[in-house]
Specification:
The chain has 13 helices and eleven strands. It is an alpha/beta fold. Among the domains are: 84 residues, Arc Repressor Mutant, subunit A (Orthogonal Bundle), CATH 1.10.10.10; 112 residues, Periplasmic binding protein-like II (D-Maltodextrin-Binding Protein, domain 2), CATH 3.40.190.10. The longest helix has 24 residues. It is elongated and about 75 Å long. The two termini are 38 Å apart.
Length: 302
């Protein structure tokens, strides 16, 4: 049985997406289809059910995924016992994170991995951090740097890397928003009177919405955007106020164009204000040698 084919099948069984799996393994979807056909021929049963809209595992496919994982683990154990490729794991793992996380956290995560495991290749994907955990659950990536939600899915393993406060921010430049804020000490502060730039999804949006409800604020939403970096940029342009992690704000190239709304105006938000950020992966995959190697290095460096 081809070890590489088994690895490809595991990723496909996790993601149920031919395009993403083919991209991850640097092959075309048609090549991936041939891999599946080869495995099904060897197994003598259908492993996947496919139509124009979806891909799903058959009962045999579920069992075959277990077999594939056990086979890969057994193969690695054999290599370790025989001293074959000791400390020289080879392969590709993918990691998803926001642009900010790639700048500020990756060096800490991967600082010793290259030295310990020079043959492990990390493929980096960047995007909206709100998608991070789903990228892992759906098999799009092996690891992700994510904000820990209040209720973490039990199938997700989470390794804390840092914490970051959520801050209310406003434009520093002269504009209608900053003019309104300049009268903080002169009149009662009305959050509903301000235009808001908010994330279209994710943990920060959920916390902000809970705070709005708690404070009986009916916000005027000027724009909903993907990613905290976009919130900072639009606030800097004078479009409104927003809520972002401190880590994103201090890493932003427009940091000097932003003012932080004083905590005296946001005390009621204190219960929601701290983010925990960490590395996450599917719990059931951490027994795989490549996954385990990356995970253990993060634990050593945390």
């Amino acid at each position: 049985m081809n070890i590489r084919d088994l690895s490809v099948f595991i990723d496909l069984a996790n993601s149920l997406h031919f395009g993403r799996t083919a991209e991850k393994h640097y092959m075309s979807p048609s090549t991936l289809s041939r891999v599946v056909q080869r495995l099904e021929l060897q197994a003598g049963v259908s492993l996947l059910q496919r139509n124009n809209r979806s891909v799903s595992l058959t009962k045999a496919g579920e069992r075959y995924r277990q077999y594939a994982r056990q086979s890969l683990s057994a193969w690695q154990a054999f290599q370790d016992d025989m001293g074959i490729g000791s400390d020289k794991l080879q392969g590709l793992v993918s990691l998803y994170c926001s642009v900010t996380a790639s700048h500020s956290l990756l060096s800490g995560i991967l600082s010793d991995l290259r030295e310990r495991q020079p043959s492990i290749e990390i493929k980096l994907h960047t995007g909206d951090q709100a998608l991070s955990i789903n990228r892992v659950k759906e098999g799009g990536d092996d690891f992700a740097i994510a904000v820990k939600p209040d209720l973490l899915d039990r199938q997700i393993a989470f390794r804390s890397l840092t914490t970051s406060r959520l801050l209310f921010i406003a434009p520093r430049r002269p504009c209608a928003v900053s003019e309104t804020l300049s009268h903080w000490q002169e009149s009662a502060f009305d959050w509903a009177a301000l235009p808001w730039i908010v994330a279209d999804r994710g943990e920060s949006r959920q916390r902000l919405d809970r705070w709005f409800r708690q404070q009986k604020i009916k916000p005027s939403i000027y724009a909903q955007v993907s990613g905290h970096e976009a919130i900072v940029s639009m606030v800097a342009l004078g479009c409104g106020v927003g809520l972002v992690p401190e880590l994103v704000l201090t890493s932003s190239p427009v940091f000097d164009s932003i003012q932080i709304i004083p905590s005296s105006f946001t005390d009621s938000f204190s219960a929601y204000a701290e983010f925990e950020i960490g590395l996450c992966a599917l719990q059931q995959r951490l027994s795989e040698p490549l996954m385990q190697a990356v995970w253990n290095d993060v634990q050593l460096d945390a």
